[in-house]
Automatic annotation (TrEMBL):
This is FAD binding domain-containing protein. The lineage of its organism: Bacteria, Bacillati, Actinomycetota, Actinomycetes, Kitasatosporales. The keyword Oxidoreductase applies. Transmembrane segments: none annotated. It comes from Streptomyces catenulae. Keywords: FAD, Flavoprotein, Oxidoreductase. PROSITE patterns: FAD_PCMH.
Length: 279
C-alpha cells in the first residue's frame, strides 16, 4: 500500500519544529528516522496530513555521561550509535543500554532508527521503552512554553500513546542512575522480529548480596510494566527462580496465549536476573 497524501515540512532547529507542530495542530507528526512512522503510514494505520522532518537537527544527536553519573541520550541518537559507544563513555554503569541495542531489528534499522522516535512511538514491545521504565528514565520534552520533564512511569499511557502533547517534541532521555548489575532479555520467533515478551532486571547489591531490585516486563500489557510482586521477592531475599515465578504468576491467567506468555516471562526474568548477577 501507499501512504495517504501529506505535506512535507523540514525543521531547521528544535524550536522551529515546535512552532511548526503548534501551527499545524493534531494533523502533524514529527519524522525522525522513520523506521516506525513510515511503516505505519504505508499501511495507512497512521494518516498525518503534515510531516515535520527533524532528521537534520544535529543538536538532538548527542550521547554523553554527566559528572554526576547520569547518561543523557539525545532524541535523534541512533540505536547503532549507542551500540558502538565505547566503555569510556558508558562504563559499566550503563553497559546494559548498549547491550540492549543488539535486540533491536536488524543493522539497517539500527542505523536509521532513533531513541526518541522509538520512545515517542510507544510500542509496548520496544526495547527503549522497556529500558526507560526499568532504569527510571526522565524524558525531556520541548513545547511552546519551554521544557518539561516526564518520568518514564508517567510517559506511556497506552498502545502507541504517550503524554506528549501534539505541539511538543521529545528532545532528550536521561538515565539518572548507573545500573552496573542489569540485564535485558527477550524472545522473538526470528532474530530481529518484534519480541513476543521481554524482561529487564536491575539488581541492587551490597557486596555479594542482592538487597532488592527492579523488574520490568515488555509485551505483556499495553505499556511496559514494573513487576511489583517480583521486586518484593528480591527485597525479601528470595531466589531468582522465586522472583521469576512471582513475575509470571501476576500476569492474567486467561486470554489467548496467556499460559505460553507466563512461561516465557518466567524464563526471561530468571535469565535476566542471572545475567545481571553475573556482572
Amino acid at each position: 500500500m501507499k501512504p495517504a497524501a501529506f505535506r512535507y515540512h523540514r525543521a531547521r532547529d528544535a524550536d522551529g519544529a515546535v512552532r511548526l507542530l503548534a501551527e499545524l495542530g493534531e494533523e502533524a507528526k514529527a519524522l525522525a528516522g522513520g523506521q516506525s512512522l513510515v511503516a505505519m503510514m504505508a499501511y495507512r494505520l497512521a494518516r498525518p496530513r503534515h510531516l515535520v522532518d527533524i532528521g537534520g537537527l544535529r543538536e538532538l544527536d548527542r550521547l554523553r555521561t554527566d559528572a554526576d553519573g547520569a547518561l543523557r541520550v539525545g532524541a535523534l541518537t541512533t540505536h547503532h550509535t549507542v551500540e558502538r559507544a565505547p566503555d569510556s563513555l558508558l562504563g559499566p554503569g550503563f553497559a546494559v543500554v548498549r547491550e540492549t541495542m543488539r535486540w533491536i531489528g536488524h543493522l539497517p534499522i539500527r542505523t536509521r532508527g532513533t531513541a526518541g522516535g522509538s520512545l515517542a512511538h510507544a510500542d509496548a514491545t520496544a526495547e527503549w521503552c522497556l529500558l526507560a521504565v526499568a532504569l527510571d528514565a526522565e524524558l525531556h520534552v520541548l513545547g511552546p512554553h519551554g521544557t518539561r520533564r516526564i518520568a518514564a512511569a508517567d510517559f506511556f499511557l497506552g498502545p502507541y500513546t504517550t503524554a506528549l502533547e501534539p505541539d511538543e517534541l521529545l528532545v532528550e532521555i536521561v538515565f539518572p542512575h548507573p545500573a552496573p548489575y542489569a540485564a535485558v532479555t527477550e524472545f522473538a520467533e526470528r532474530r530481529g522480529d518484534f519480541a513476543l515478551a521481554s524482561a529487564a532486571v536491575v539488581l541492587d547489591r551490597d557486596g555479594g548480596t542482592v538487597r532488592g531490585g527492579r523488574v520490568a516486563l515488555g509485551g505483556v500489557g499495553p505499556v511496559p510494566l514494573r513487576a511489583a510482586a517480583a521486586e518484593r521477592v528480591l527485597a525479601d531475599g528470595g531466589t531468582f527462580a522465586e522472583c521469576a515465578r512471582a513475575a509470571a504468576d501476576a500476569l492474567p491467567e486467561e486470554g489467548r496465549g496467556a499460559a505460553y506468555r507466563r512461561q516465557l516471562i518466567r524464563t526471561l526474568v530468571r535469565r535476566a536476573c542471572e545475567e545481571a548477577d553475573a556482572r
